[in-house]
Amino acid sequence: MADRAFRYGDGLFETVRAYGSAPHRLGEHLGRLRASMLALGYEAPDDVLEGTVGDVASLLRDAGSSDAAVRIVVSRGDGGPFETTGEPWRLVDVEAIETAAVRPAVTLARIDGAHTPGDLFRAHKSTSFLRAIWARREAVRLGATEALYVSADGLVGEASTANVFASFDGLLVTPPLDGIVPGIVRSDVISVARTEGMIVAERPLRVTEIAEADEIFLTSSLAELVPATMLDGRPVGTGAPGPVWATLLARYRDLSPR
């Protein structure tokens, strides 16, 4: 097996939520994937991604009416660690997922050193998933269900597979796009919150500050919006999912092709 994604993690991916046969924000996901391919020097991104929309539609038709996770993977191709001998390739896979009315709340544990502001590679969804796997395992070891990435100097980044929002008395804060994945749902939630008249700030967020938040919730394509009710063993706010999360989840779902 000479493929570089398999050998060295030199691959990129996108995970798209499909509601029945309708993939949500597929164009935005493909745009982000193409941007990552260009930024990281993958050859001929338009040629590699050509036909993806049709492939996704065909696979979803074959899968039936269940909600699904659509995973689009791109590899740089065969080769050694520093040279490429093959052509880049693309794979599309569809897996049925359980449709939950509301995802269970998560509990968070801070993982110091997992976030690095300015990290070029964290802005791209790489097939090298070691950091997320390690961070989630550490969180579970600490008695939580999800990891909160924190930098060496106390800045919050993201969770292992999600972006982070915190609510403070009417102010919604999310960390800036500095060493984190530019989430598709993150962008939607910011727009929805502003439409609802909420004040949204994309700014640095310290772990000492988020520990005092009224609400914390996570966003990702598959999970949508998920509340966090505990941080490092302490309740977040009242210790129950809050009204800001509930409002934004309802408004976000208005955007999805349910």
What is the gist of this entry?
The chain has helices at residues 4-8, 26-39, 45-49, 52-63, 130-141, 184-195, 207-210, 243-255; strands at 11-19, 22-23, 68-75, 89-96, 106-112, 146-150, 156-159, 163-168, 171-174, 199-202, 215-220, 224-231, 234-235.
CATH topology of the largest domain: D-amino Acid Aminotransferase, Chain A, domain 2
If you average the pLDDT, what whole number results? 94
Q: What is the CA–CA distance across the termini?
A: 41 Å
Largest sheet: 9 strands, mixed
Structure description:
This protein is an alpha+beta fold. It has 2 domains: 4-96, 2-Layer Sandwich (D-amino Acid Aminotransferase, Chain A, domain 1), CATH 3.30.470.10; 106-255, D-amino Acid Aminotransferase, Chain A, domain 2. The protein is 30% helix and 28% strand. It has helices at residues 4-8, 26-39, 45-49, 52-63, 130-141, 184-195, 207-210, 243-255; strands at 11-19, 22-23, 68-75, 89-96, 106-112, 146-150, 156-159, 163-168, 171-174, 199-202, 215-220, 224-231, 234-235. The strands form 2 sheets. Strands 5, 6, 7, 8, 9, 10, 11, 12 and 13 form a 9-stranded mixed β-sheet that branches. Helix 6 (184-195) packs across helix 8 (243-255). The mean pLDDT is 94.
